[in-house]
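Q: Is it fine to ask for two folds in a single conversation?
A: Yes, each is treated on its own. Send the first.
Q: Here.
A: Result:
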Amino acid sequence: MSVRRFFRRRREDAELAEEMESHLAHERDENLARGLGEDEARRMAALKLGSTRRVREQLWKQNSFPLLGDIYRDIRYAVRTLARTPGFLIVVVLVMALGIGANVALFTVVRSVLLNPLPFKDANRLYSLYDHDTDGKSADIPGSVAGGDFYDWQQQSHGFEQMALYKSYGFNLSGQSGQLPEAIVAGSCSANFFSMLGVRPAYGRWFLPSDDRANATATTMLTWSLYQRRFGGDPAIVGKTILLDEKPYTVIGVLPSWFRYPDERTQLWVPNRVVLPADMMEMHGGDHTFTVIGRLKQGVTPVQAIAQINAIQHHLHQQLITQAVSDGADMRPMIDDLVQDVKTPLYVLLAAVGCVLLIACLNVANLLVARTAARRKEVAIRAALGGTRWRLLREQLTESLLLCGAGGLLGVFLAVGAVHWLKITRENLPRANAIHIDLPVLLFAVGITLLCGIFAGIVPALSAANKKILSALQDTARSVSGSQSRATLRKVLLTTEVALTVVLLIGAGLLLKSFLQLRSTDIGCTTNNVLTMSFVLSDSKYQKPEQVASFYEQLLQRVRSLPGVQAAGLTLAVPGSGFPGNLHFNIVEHPPLPKGKYIYAMMGAVDPGYFQAIQIPLRKGRFFTDGERWDNDHDAIVNEAFVRQYFPGEDPLGRHIHTRWRTDAGEEYAIVGVVGDTRYDLAKQPEPTMYFPIYDGNADAATLVVRSQHDVASLALPIQKQIAQLDPDLPVYHVLTMEQLIGRSTQDASFNATLVLAFAGLSLVLAAVGLYGVLSYLVTQRTSEIGIRIAMGAQRSQVLGLVLGEGLRPAWVGLALGLLGGGIAARLIREMLYGVKPLDWSVYAVVAVALALVACVACVVPAWRASRLDLVRALRAE
């Protein structure tokens, strides 16, 4: 039988009926012609042709798919049944929509960010390489490489088809045609960077080896976002010149819209050797700020490749023992470098929404068990009339699948909105541009919807199918024994629901306390009414140290004279703004370190008024003076962490440190002061730090710090006007108050804690509803029993205690199991916690008390109602 005939069966049945009626009329007319009466003629015609209904039924059956017909009838029955209880329908659909929608949204993010390969050629063979010290002390930012190390790896290793390197850079993009200047985050890279990744420009060409030379014509490639935003999406920009740090660069290409590596902040790319000094590119023990990417050769394993790089690096370390050269190397898949900071939080959030969905399914299963119990007689009558066990089971599952299907459909729409909200809220989420709902995500949504429908429906369906027909038909309101199995089943489901809720609450409590600890961390300076803004001076305009120092002095004089300004200062980086860089050094008065061993400290450059402006206390000695300039700058200030680590039990004042702050050969600096500790990252302990005079002119990038008694944000525009008067082509960036800056640094912790707390709150509400529903159901089922107890002399308080015990017992068991599971889950998220132990008993105590209160409130109402039953009505209940 064809599918086409299945859908045409009504038409064919009508045609057959018309044809048979025609044959019957013809036979009747012939019988009339032979002289038979009207009734006899019709009877004889019917006897000759046989039963027309049977013929039609046989044709209808031939044109039918029995399974499709059964499914169609089950769906119609389920729709009619659910339509009679719209309140139940709405509640279940909304609960499932929230659970499924949250899971689809988080799965979309996890799949797009963590599971999908990078959009590069043979992305599974791309690896990030970095050097490190085998003693665990890195010479610089983890994952960074010195330029000289890279070129040795490139020339001597044979495990990679290609290697490329890049680093973050910054430019001042000059305004053209009336545009304002703009501070641009850029990337400088080797010539083969884009060809190795397989990224073809949307317009123009990529870099060639001839572009990556010190004397080459300066060229640049624009990202799609800068091309659209700054240049109006005009392809004619290719071949034209733009000014970066007041130097002309020829635009040779525009990158495709999907390319946003390493993140969306990077706006353009330039060749390394055009902007970086030759000694930096060849240096082994110097600036470890490059990121190296390699494409593994076919047939070479990562273990083989890194063993070779390790051997090369170890040989370099032995050969250059007097320089700060790392003695080892490592590698990891390129995608891991991008997502390492969000991998654990995303999996934690996915696990949290999975718990919410399971709790929702348990709640729906509880509701369906109650619904099945209320319809037990109806089901028994259907079974008595010939309904098979499979047929009854199928009807129950169809009803559950319809409910979850409606919830899943609504959940997908909720997921679309949630994904959009997530991309806006988490601006720093890596690979955010790749997050979208596609066919695999929709298949995942269909899959979990089916699983939820089967899970939520199979338990009540089996419960209904197992019910004996006779006992169900004999059930009355006084027959409570028949409902005990269902009551036990609901308690088991509820216990599991409470346990999962407790696990979620513990995780949310730990993350929330961690966030509060992070926000309350003493950063080491004042944060009230402090404004910060950063800028980078152009190398072409400020070539000499005295020019840099002169600009800094004039700027501070102007800013300090503005109304409302209490104090102002300059620094390389304010506390809480991230890793400022570090330097290795020697203490002149201490014994020399063994060859190949180095000690490190964070570096900073400040003006004499910086510490007072941001209120970092002076512990010993003095601050810098205005006389410490480019021709007299051999003084340094250190923090307390520096003293604790390198001068334990000693007075550091007057001691000397030898480091390469200004020159590669290094210079000696006398320690003239000790200041309080600050944190460059709220989640990290204070690091040893060395401060140098910013008036030495060595630092062409700085952050201005301004403190006021009033709303400091109102000073942003007047200060920017002062900067524009000094240098019209100098843009500023990161104009933030200290509160905003700290808020940005804790944004991820806040987001994770808030989201998990929201999921935990939702699960708590579902658990409370489940408790209330179970107890209300039990009270309804035991109305006659309670009436009999009261009639026999039971006190109202005894009835109240009995019912409360019935409801709270699964809550206590669930609480105990949840506390155990929460302890296990807490250990899995320990790396997300700051200042909080996984077994923080205050969090566990708060969760236990909160759940106990919610459980009591949920149980009190039905228990109170049971204790106030009307005795006569209860005994008459049937």
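Q: Second one now.
A: Result:
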Amino acid sequence: MEDHVQPTSPLGAQRKWLRRLLRTTVALCFLVCILCGYFYWRLHSSLPQLTGKIAAPTIKAEVQVARDGQGVPSIEGQSRVDIAFALGFVHAQDRYFQMDLLRRMSGGRLAELAGPSALPSDRRFRRHRFQSLAEKVCQNLPADKRAVLSAYTAGVNHGLSSLKDYPFEYLVLNQSPALWQETDSILVMMTMLCDLQPMDGRGEIGLGVLKEKVAPEVFNFLVRSGSHWDAALDGSEFPMPQVPPAEVFTLRDNASFSNDNLYALQTEKTPWASSVVNDPDFMVGSNNWAVGNGVGRDSRAILASDMHLGLNVPTIWYRAFMKGPCLNGQQRSLVGVTLPGTPVLIEGSNGKVAWGFTNSYGDYGDIVELKRPDPTKSQYVTSSGIEELQTFEEELLYPGGKEVLSYRWSKWGPVVEERDQRLFVHCWIGNDPKAFDLNLIDFEIANTTQEAMAIANRSGMPNQNVTVADDQGNIGWTLSGRIPKRPGPPSLVPVDWSQGVGEWQGYLTPEEYPRLYNPEDGRIWTANNRIMGTDYLNKVGDGRFDPGARARQIRDRLYEKDQFTEDDLLAVQLDDEARFMKVWKERLLETSAVNPNKLSSEFIQHVEKSSDRASVDAVGYRIISEFRLQTLSRIFGIEAGRSSITAPTKIKGLARKLGITQNFAISRDAVADQLLKERPMHWLPSEYSSWDELLLDAAQAAQVRLSESGPLTDATWGKRNRARIKHPLSQAVSALSFILDMHPHELPGDSHMPRVQSPSGGASQRMVVSPGEEEKGYYHQPGGQSGHPLSRFYSAGYEDWVYGNKSPLLPGPSEYQLKLVPLN
């Protein structure tokens, strides 16, 4: 009898398939849980130890590190060297990956960590030879400051090694961190300098292209050192240039317009950069001001400072309170911000003196065009004869590959531009080891405003406006960093040094620096604007100052009262009134009036009811802002501001007439204001028959743009100005954003007002302090102390920054106590 296999029923087969699917799914879920648990365990293992004792090499006596509820450390030690060790320790435990990026940026070694996407950045930085420069800086440090740097370096490496696992970013990248070197702290300083100054002189190169294309009258009209918003400390004002006549320049013909071979000024950027801001209307800068001489409460001096930079996760600054002896043995309590990777208090108060910085936007470099007897060879002319360009070749490494970079140097600096067989080099303070030192640490021992100003003048650091206040009621302003000593006024365009004419004659002595001490009216303010008049410009130069509207509004606020408290100065920091925009509101309403029924009544009603503030619920402000940007794009024919609009292709504008694309270093708003006031027909783009037609076109474009995604009532300023404060990893891998980035709050403020704010740029901190009464001071920053997403300190304080809460400068009560004890 034959055996017969019974056929499986369809229902039985289906059940069998479902059982297999269920077993496979359970197994996969189990495997995923194991992997997630393993990764979470690894992630949790990289959190720092906050309590107990840790034996530490090199320190001579116990150092206490107490943290408050926001993770702000209070470090107390018996020597400045031991305190530096402890600061390096906490920096490494909370922010090592950030420090690593900062040193790799200027060292030209980002691609080793981040891969080929960072090669454009490495190419730019490597040719400046910052690594060898940092070695020279370290060699030149005096013994006491070198000891602080050595102790800090040891603290960093001990903090890193004391973690149970690598910082989490290295787990994600499947890499391991390299140990910290003394030169790395200098590289961090160099990265900050490159954030604040154009290391390749791109603006000066672009202005040189412009000057070759236009008559002198046109160049002077477009590139002016002053504006009608100027608010210089000495009250100086410059006459505005006249509009060049039609026989000199006109936009009413089609001659010279071209869409080909346009000269582009954009600079390569990488998502790993330390200060990426995707907003052409935002400029790296800052505000600071001080009141004294009876203007501050109780006859005290009070300082306010907020530094404007790109906003990232973690924040740029690391809060710290340090108590103990300084290098000269004086006992001091220091409070303020440090920069992860460096051993000094960057900005804050020592109990006697408080200091704050804003970028000065002076001219601290010159683009030199080399004169070459034979453009096919590497020889160039100098006042001492013919010299040969040096050629360097270096390997740029990245995971899985490498490339060879070749670059050239002259006696004045690196070749930064090659165009039509012409070579341009950048002679810049940032390529001189004298531009860097640790003299900033001497602010810790300053007893008076005048002492602090003298320290600023001899400190090798970025060239900043330094505003100072002391506990005796004195205030002052001066500049920090090295200032080139030139035989004449600094040039806005490339120069010829082949005959020795114009070459630098070293640097200004501290006695030659501009300064202001105890002005009679008891008020000092700076906001990246022109600070003083002609003598100042002849020394410092014009690195393309902020137009001045922000400085003017701060100045005017400081004259609204006879006396100010810390609360009053914080209110000025949070001021989002749009005084700069009032003229644009008037233009838009006038445009509607002369063009009835061309704009919707709802559109105009929002403008009429505008509160004149850049508040998150403001529809009218957003309309006015968009109208300004659309107008600028039509006049200049280039991208204009935060809305990332580009000029309509039919519009040629100034950019295409001049053959220059992108935002070039002209006085854009001042030029536009003058043109729209005087309305010269020969400066009107040829696509329009009148200035009214241009303004109507801009207004209609604004209306369409703001209505295209929904009702106009939904087009609030807050929806446009929503925070994009991102971690470098989420900038590279967007799926990590919900874990790593700050909450995308809607933010008040804009570029031309005290409360400077864009989605990814703005106040990197806010501080208000009267030295000696730090307990009454305030502090904000856009993120927490820790760079670890599992830490309770990761976003602590962020909400205070968003909403302007009155959060204290001094740390709160201690919640965690850690002791670093000598190894023996």
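Q: Anything structural to flag on that second result?
A: Two points. The two ends are 91 Å apart (CA to CA). Residues 641-645 have pLDDT under 50 and may be disordered.
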